[in-house]
Design a protein that fits this description.
single chain, 15 strands, about 35% helix, binds zinc ion
């Protein structure tokens, strides 16, 4: 009999694998594969380029369209420098909470999803319960990309995707998109007294930052679009969080590098922002080259996470609302894998147990009541798939 104790046992096993994003997750994948095989379910690995980590997906039940994908990430953030009262790699129950790295973000949901597999098989589901377990979510969300493509191409077509990021089981229908650029400005060094003969990479980069400031001011002063209004802030932001360059106050800087990112509200196209940014960079670069033809600005995309756009009459939203009874309007400001599934044509929402406030913290925990609510979600979902 599959009950919540089984989900708890799985959670304890998952937390014991220290799957920090920088490290391999293969021990966890081996374990999950064995667990699924024990229930007669074949899982499929989708490797990263170095074959040090693998995404894992499976489809339990009949190979027909109309099932549901439960999506979670296998990686967690590091624990170094955090003062933990308990062993982060062991689930410790105290005061109605389960402590441990990843209990909330998001091995709790993954454990519940895995425990739902035997439940689904026993119930004789008529549409498949599918699981998508990803890598590298915590370091830019890009690790799931080849798995999402493979699921879209090979798995029986699902009617809905539930991404189980901690939302206190509320149905989250939207988030901003994220688009990041590493920007390298190469100038031409001369003595600062002769700066008109050189190109100062630091001062040219400042023009780009000035552009970012102007975009923020303009976006802020516009009335928000209907999809953007629910967000905080309800406009697209352009942010430079890192810059370094130059070698001395009296040398025009040869190099300056900076990290710039956009958080784009649903309703706006991140690629439009990318084009506007590239146009500004081309304009500044042209000015630099008029002085020194070897001057250049190089852009590299560091991350590209599509927004989750609230769907009109979305299947995933209807399903999650029917199961949870939640009818509120919820959007979040962080990016998730939901945007990738939606971009691949799946109806997608976020709904998972636990509170995002506990994610990434020392003494991360999930409340037992949230874990139970997550289990109730799985039971109801399986009953729905069996109808
Ligand atoms: Zn997460």
């Amino acid at each position: 009999m599959t009950d919540i104790a089984e989900a708890r046992r799985i959670l304890e096993a998952l937390v014991a694998f220290p799957t920090v994003s920088r490290d391999s997750n293969l021990a966890l994948v081996d374990w999950a594969e064995d667990y699924l095989a024990g229930h007669g379910v074949a899982a499929h690995r989708v490797w990263n380029s170095g074959r040090s980590k693998a995404n894992l997906w499976c489809s339990a039940g009949p190979a027909v369209a109309g099932g549901v994908v439960l999506s979670g990430h296998s990686d967690v953030v590091p624990v170094e420098g955090q003062g933990w009262a308990t062993d982060p790699w062991r689930v410790t129950e105290r005061g109605g909470r389960l402590y441990g790295r990843g209990t909330c973000d998001m091995k709790g949901f993954v454990a519940l999803a895995l425990a739902a597999v035997p439940l689904a098989l026993k119930a004789g589901v008529r549409r498949p319960l599918q699981i998508a377990l990803s890598i590298d979510e915590e370091i830019g969300c890009m690790g799931c990309l080849p798995m999402v493509a493979e699921i879209a191409a090979k798995a029986p077509r699902a009617a809905a995707v539930i991404v189980g990021e901690p939302s206190r089981m509320e149905v989250v229908t939207g988030h901003k998109g994220g688009l990041g650029f590493d920007t390298a400005v190469r100038g031409f060094p001369v003595h600062s007294s002769m700066m008109h003969r050189g190109v100062n990479a630091v001062m040219e980069a400042a023009k780009l930052i000035d552009w970012a400031n102007a975009q923020n001011d303009a976006n802020r002063s516009k009335p928000p679009g209907p999809l953007a209004a629910a967000f905080d802030p309800p406009w697209t932001t352009v942010h430079v969080g890192q810059i370094s360059g130059g070698t001395a106050h009296n040398i025009t800087a040869e190099h300056c590098i900076m990290g710039l990112d956009f958080r784009v509200v649903p309703g706006e196209n991140p690629e439009d922002w990318a084009r506007a940014w590239q146009a500004k960079v081309a304009e500044v670069e042209a000015g630099m080259r008029a002085v020194r033809p070897e001057a250049a600005i190089t852009l590299t995309r560091s991350f590209d996470v599509p927004p989750l756009v609230p769907e009109a009459d979305g299947r995933a939203e209807a399903l999650a609302r029917a199961i949870t009874g939640d009818n509120g309007t919820h959007v979040v400001s962080y990016g998730t894998e939901a945007g990738f599934f939606q971009r691949a044509g799946f109806s997608t929402v976020i709904c998972g147990p636990g509170d995002i406030a506990q994610a990434h913290q020392a003494d991360e925990y999930i409340e037992m009541t949230q874990f139970e609510a997550g289990w109730h979600f799985m039971q109801t979902l399986v009953a729905e798939l069996a109808r």
